[in-house]
Specification:
The protein has a single domain, classed as Alpha-Beta Plaits. By secondary structure, the chain is α+β, with helices and mostly antiparallel strands. Belongs to the bacterial ribosomal protein bS6 family. This is Small ribosomal subunit protein bS6.
């Protein structure tokens, strides 16, 4: 069987539970057709580079799939029908990525940087008189 990464973008107005249900539906489609989902990552609500179907943001979800080609074709067919998914892309990969994906590592790194800087409320506030001088 071949390895694939399937990423889909769900509408911004969906709740996280609905996005998780979409991921479960995709997993069920794959497993019903003798495929296997090796990893599921939810990247969260992120801004889009441009508006897609009146959405400025979207929920990103990535699935790592180990399945034959006809399973991916069925998954993409079902994904096209779903109105809650605004974009999707499936890419064949040579090997599965170990550990968290690049996007998850980036989110963790950003969280650490914010923690190092501390809350912006910790900075001493300058009076307006000092700024005018």
């Amino acid at each position: 069987m071949a390895l694939y990464e399937h990423v889909f973008l769900a509408r911004q107005d969906l709740a996280q539970a609905q996005v998780d249900a979409l991921a479960e539906t995709a997993t069920k489609i794959i497993e019903d057709n003798q495929g296997k989902v090796t990893k599921t990552e939810t990247w969260g609500l992120r801004s889009l580079a441009y508006r897609i179907a009146k959405n400025r943001k979207a929920h990103y979800v990535m699935l790592e799939i180990d399945a034959p080609g006809h399973v991916v074709a069925e998954l993409e067919r079902q994904t096209q029908i779903n109105e809650d998914i605004i974009r999707y892309m499936t890419v064949k990969v040579d090997e599965a990525e170990q550990g968290p994906s690049v996007m998850m590592r980036k989110q963790e790194r950003d969280r650490e940087r914010r923690a190092e800087r501390g809350d912006r409320g910790d900075r001493p506030r300058r009076d307006r008189e000092e700024e005018a001088a």
